[in-house]
Amino acid sequence: MKENQKKKKFIKERKNYKRAPLMSVHVSVLVAVILGQIACGYALGISGTALSDAAEYIKISDLWTGLIGAGALIGLAGSLIIGRLSDKIGRRKMLMINMYILAAFSFLHLLTSNLLLTFIIRVAIGLMIAIDYTVGNALLTEWLPKGEDSKRQSHLLIYWTIGFIASYIVGTFVTGFGAYTWQVLLASGGIIALIPAIFRSLFRLPASPTWLASQGKVKKANKVIQKHMGRKWRLPKRFFKREKKVKDANEITFATLFSKKYLRHTLVGGIYYACQAFAFFGISIFLPILLEGMGVTDAKISGVIYNGGMFIGVLLGILIFNKISRRAFLIANFLVSGLLIGSLVFLTHIDSMVKLTIFAIFAVILSSGLVLDYPYTTELFDVKVRGTGVGTCITISRFGAAAGTFLLPVLTNAGSANLSMMVCAIVLLFSFVVCLIWAPETSPKFKKK
Fold this sequence. Notes:
With 449 residues, the chain is mainly alpha-helical. Helices cover 75% and strands 1% of the residues. The protein is globular.
């Protein structure tokens, strides 16, 4: 009885920490995740320019080019395991060390030009990136105040894009190392990774209060909140009500994601992410083909259009993110981008500049949908299965990315650019249908009460 009275008094005297204004702890977590996103974007992007340089000095087959180029994407498929692990052991520990490991693997590129070892290193780097993709986003949404969490997550793609574009700039202008240039470029990702690694050591990341509470550690969670925010803040009331009923994390399995409660969310998250990745990684394949048809073979122009379109698209996505519902955004994005790329298949006789304009608009529209990747997949799952759920969606998406990287060039060589674009349009319109039927609304602003 006394225990219940103390609990009620504690709840009454303190406020929900998710209703707090932005504080230094929020800024520290946000900056730590932002720096990680820049490092991830750079690490993924640098392989393309490095491999282009390698082809000038060493004999490298299309198979090895594809494997090494997709190595980090293959490693990202480990998100399934990473997410599950973070739901069992927490977020903080993994984020404190992954960027150091990523840097160490990146520097290993300086020691070997063996293609098999290079591929293995790229896979390992992808696994470390998976930690920031899954665990970093979970920690961010579990710390930031309500309303700020999804908004700040939607901004993360700006920083990922900055890292990605930075890798293109470095890859284009860093020269002078001869046959070692491609190894130096791959290793440069280690320098970028050390920045978030050191920041996270200097400004130590806090544990996730809601994750601790989901494990039944309510008192410990409140201590963490009060340590970083002051004594006037506490967990949301719902965690006190079910303090004795919380399931142990070991009871949550992969099968849980395919139970009646989560099946729809798991399927939507995995399918939309995979279809988006398929088309997104196909952009870099389609654009040079179209430019070549117009007599433009300068790779720098291709890169400017590709990276510029992606950056404009992300800014557009952020601009409209909170103005329309998540569901409407998803459905419209896949429908419009699918129709745009599909129109190029049938409008074969139009002026080449009109074709390029349509393709540029397609790149902008598709890229705007990337803004949904972090907040929407995170919002699909509650805290008990968030790491596992997000990790599963990212893993499924990597199959789409790998298919876009390998299948589209094969289709282009076997048929034509039109065949590749037709397949891309079918994939996007398939996702449109899936989202139209199943996609739930996760935005607090547009949810039906």
